[in-house]
Write a structure and sequence with these properties.
Helix content is 28%, strand content 31%. By secondary structure, the chain is of the alpha+beta class. The protein folds into 2 domains: 205 residues, Antithrombin, subunit I, domain 2 (Antithrombin, Chain I, domain 2, 2-Layer Sandwich); 145 residues, Alpha-1-antitrypsin, domain 1 (Roll), CATH 2.30.39.
Length: 420
């Protein structure tokens, strides 16, 4: 048996340990950067949106911006890198994104998550081979030739791509427990480039989840929910008694709040519900103080606790034009026809982002059948367990457990409001 010299053995062992440490540090660093971007995007949107229901898919937006990085150059690249916090041209970063943004699929457990990017290219526009190869390698990107000579025709082709996942499992009341998807006209993100709509980027996110422990529809009853203005309405409130991950935290200004985590079947993903502890504390106070560091503290601060859980059934949809949001986060050159530099994408001159659309939907229900058919009021027997009752505005985050990526983030101000 051939044996390595002692010095060489030390070198090999040190290299292996160092490599493991670097991979762990990279994952922790990327996790923090993803959380920082998600919180920044959400807080920027709250500054432009009224006090209403809100949902956004940070991972969808960041994936599209990361794809743009592959073809950006100069100051355009620097702004994208500064906002995301990383450069996708780094091999280790690409490897991390490849694994963290891959599909999660388990059809036997009815839980799956899928993210794709499609580039619609105007006939005659030539893409650089290096860009298409790199994009396809890490972002599951396909290239489709399109005719954008007419605006409606170009949009319809992109919209059909956005609807591809919806057609396979439409969102219907009572159809599943906690279904989310990037959907609608541009399902998660559509970016239109060029003076004549030369390139369109459509990023889609589709998710279907079933609770690890399902809510029973027979336990759902109409209970009071206090709105932001202090008025009270009745909403369908789901209930279950379960052992869950739960924690109590404080913001920098000493505002107390609680976090409840509900896993989906397979425990790949979970829904975190964030609720101010005091009923008189406005949700906006918590939103304004939310940071990536606070999100990281939840990973170690949650404890398994037997609880009575009340969570309203809700459904929402939001659509944004990110052209006014992303510049506020530091990405401005990409939208400027004279300053944008995407020479790494195509030899064509004048490519720039003319619009950036983001649309996403969410529905959270019991995983029951024929939900609309049952109308009986059920009186629940109260236990002595602690109670988590989301009977006032709250935040929610749907996170990928192993990477910490925030797939969806938003707030529920009025569970009965289903308008976009």
């Amino acid at each position: 048996m051939c044996r390595l010299p002692f010095a060489a053995s030390l070198l090999v062992c040190f290299w292996l340990v160092e490599r493991s440490h670097c991979n762990g540090s990279l994952q922790d660093g990327m996790r923090e950067l993803h959380s920082r971007f998600a919180v920044g995007l959400y807080r920027t949107l709250t500054g432009t949106e009224n006090d209403s229901n809100l949902i956004v898919s940070p991972v969808s937006v960041s994936l599209s911006l990361a794809l743009l990085q592959l073809g950006a150059r100069g100051n355009t690249l620097a702004q994208l890198e500064g906002t995301l916090g990383y450069n996708v041209n780094d091999a280790q970063v690409q490897d991390f994104l490849l694994h963290s943004h891959g599909d999660i699929s388990n059809t036997s457990q009815a839980t799956w998550l899928q993210q794709t990017c499609t580039l619609f290219i105007q006939s005659g526009v030539r893409l650089l081979t290096e860009f298409t190869q790199h994009a396809a390698a890490w972002a599951n990107t396909s290239v489709v030739r399109a005719n954008f000579s007419q605006l409606s025709h170009g949009r319809s082709q992109a919209e059909r791509a956005g609807h591809s996942h919806d057609e396979s499992w439409p969102l219907q009341a009572g159809s599943s427990s906690g279904e989310l998807s990037g959907s609608g006209e541009a399902q998660a993100e559509a970016v239109w480039w060029g003076h004549r709509l030369q390139v369109a980027l459509v990023n889609t996110v589709a998710f279907r989840g079933v609770w690890q422990k399902q809510f029973l529809f027979t336990n759902t009853q109409n209970l009071p929910f206090m709105l932001s203005d202090g008025s009270v309405i009745k909403v369908p409130m789901m209930y279950q008694a379960s052992e869950v991950s739960f924690g109590q935290f404080r913001t920098a200004s000493d505002q107390r709040y609680t976090v409840l985590e509900l896993p989906y079947l397979g425990r790949f993903l979970s829904l975190q519900v964030v609720l101010p502890s005091e009923k008189k504390t406005p949700l906006s106070t918590l939103e304004s103080q939310l940071t990536a560091r606070q999100l990281a503290s939840w990973d170690t601060g949650l404890r398994r606790t037997k609880m009575d859980i009340f969570l309203p059934r809700f459904r929402m949809q939001n659509k944004f034009n990110l052209r006014s949001v992303l510049p506020a986060m530091g990405i401005s050159d990409a939208f400027n026809p004279t300053a944008a530099d995407f020479t790494g994408i195509s030899v064509e001159e004048g490519l720039y982002v003319s619009d950036a659309f983001h649309e996403v939907r969410m529905e959270v229900t019991e995983d029951g059948t024929k939900a609309a058919a049952a109308t009986a009021m059920v009186l629940l027997k109260r236990s002595r367990a602690p109670v988590f009752k989301a009977d006032r505005p709250f935040l929610f985050l749907l996170r990928q457990i192993n990477t910490g990526s925030i797939l969806f983030m938003g707030r529920v101000v009025n569970p009965s409001d289903q308008t976009p």
